[in-house]
Amino acid sequence: MYSCSEKRMEDKIKTFSKFGDAGHGGITRYSLSPEAIMARNEFKKRMEKIGAKIEVDDVGDMYATIEGTDPGAKRIVMGSHVDSVKNGGNYDGILGVMAAMEVLETVKQCDIPHRHPLTAMIWTNEEGSLYPPAMMCSGIVCYDYLPEDIRVKFKYEDMMNSKSILDPTKTFGMALESSGFKGDKKYRLSPDKYMCMFETHIEQGPILEDNGNDIGVVDCVLGMFNYRLKFFGQTVHAGTFPMPKRRDAFLAAAETLCYLHKEIDALGIPDLVYTTGEVVCHPCVHTCVPDYFDFSFDARHEDPKILEKVLDIVKSCANKNWGNGCTCEVEKAWNRDTVYWNKKLVGFVKEAAEETGVTHQYIHSGAGHDAQFCSYVIPTTMIFVQSKDGLSHCEPEFSSVKHCTEGATVMLNAVLKADKEDEI
Ligand SMILES: [Zn+2]
User: With the C-alpha atoms ordered 165, 167, 170, 175, is the resulting torsion angle positive or negative?
Assistant: First the structure.
């Protein structure tokens, strides 16, 4: 059993937290921004220092590889992303990159024997905060292996034309060109060169902390569906039109949302989560009764039969009268099935957690990650590190140096188990 260094991990956390420091404890580090480029250069500098070879593929994904004793063996890759949401924290994504670096540094420093080449990597534009969608570059790289209804959203040309949310004259392709990180397609992660993938990530929820566990042995990414509920009424003047005659689309949506919560909660399903996070109101003027309103409805659960039951309730909203005569349309945005991690790799992570003596438990991932797309290409798994108060995608996001290092240590020992295999 080998251990990673808390001191080195702390130094990395402090250093990377400077790139995009927003001045109140967190960072804003959009993909390919000057701040993200600083993080990439720091990754390159530190990895070159231990003798790793750097490769960059055509969408800016970076790979730092140290050779093993078997030149014919496939690589074992570890990684995550360095970009963040606006006013995000110092751990989401970057922890997986720092943990991968830490594994390589420990292997080098302790001269740990290994047969397979080991690679630390950065996926470009995971958050999609400036150039949507999220998980853009794992979507591009894994395109040929993804289910048809997922892959259609990640066509290379469409991605290159993705417009900046801050400046629609700028595209992702332009940012990539000028970043200095547009490499060669031949370096893309592929099953003929890579054997398996590990991603360490903060939990982004309170389950590990509530259960007093340091590390999560992740077994799957939850299946989910995302629908839009659209309401149509009539705009009239807010001051002149009598209340009983109004068809208020916002009121219709509010009634529907309350109905959804009441009906879905009555199913009494443990572990089901659902959210309305995005709304559109038209004309959105205080002197007008809204004639149009729509909201997103995102539901997640491991069991597809449960999601089916919830979806039946969502769909039933289309056949009802809401807000004094408004109509409602229910439209599918997208869905995904539960993605299970490779059982053998999950077993290695569990054994490694046991051997290193960290408290741990099995856990599902409620969020999507690059590892999810990668799992369609090569055997993949994830390791979660406890998040303080379950907070993420915000500046108070925090995981202790001890927990971050434990995550790296578990990954290192799981990687060394995988290293003994020819295939997973
Ligand atoms: Zn992330």
Answer: negative
Q: How many CB atoms lie within 10 A of CB 41?
A: 13
The per-residue pLDDT for range 357-366, each reduced to its tens digit, is: 999 999 999 9
Q: To which residue do tokens 């004259």 refer?
A: 169
Distance 247 CA to ligand 1 centre (A): 42
Span from the CA of 92 to the centroid of ligand 1 (angstroms):
5
Q: What is the pLDDT of residue 380?
A: 98
The 10s digit of each residue's pLDDT in 125-165 is 999 999 999 999 999 999 999 999 899 999 999 999 999 99
Ligand 1 center from residue 229 Cα (angstroms): 28
Alpha carbon of 27 to ligand 1 centroid (Å): 14
In this structure, how many other beta carbons lie within 10 angstroms of the beta carbon of residue 67? 15
Cα–Cα dist 314/226, whole Å: 11
Beta-bridge partner residues of 223: 301
Q: How far is the CA of 344 from the centre of ligand 1 (A)?
A: 24
Distance CA 23, CA 261 (A): 38
Cα of 24 vs centre of ligand 1, distance in Å, is 20
Percentage, residues of the chain above pLDDT 90: 98
The conformational region for residue 111 under phi > 0 = left, psi -120 to 50 = alpha, else beta, is left
Q: Cα of 232 to ligand 1 centre, how many Å?
A: 36
Q: Radius of gyration of the chain from Cα atoms?
A: 23
Instruction: Calculate the average pLDDT of the chain.
Output: 97
For residue 275, the CA-to-ligand 1 centroid distance in Å is 19
DSSP 387-418: -GGG--SSTT----HHHHHHHHHHHHHHHHHH
> For residue range 13-56, what is the model confidence (pLDDT) as tens digits?
999 999 999 899 999 999 999 999 999 999 999 999 999 999 99
Domains and CATH numbers, the chain: 6-221+338-419 (3.40.630.10), 223-336 (3.30.70.360)
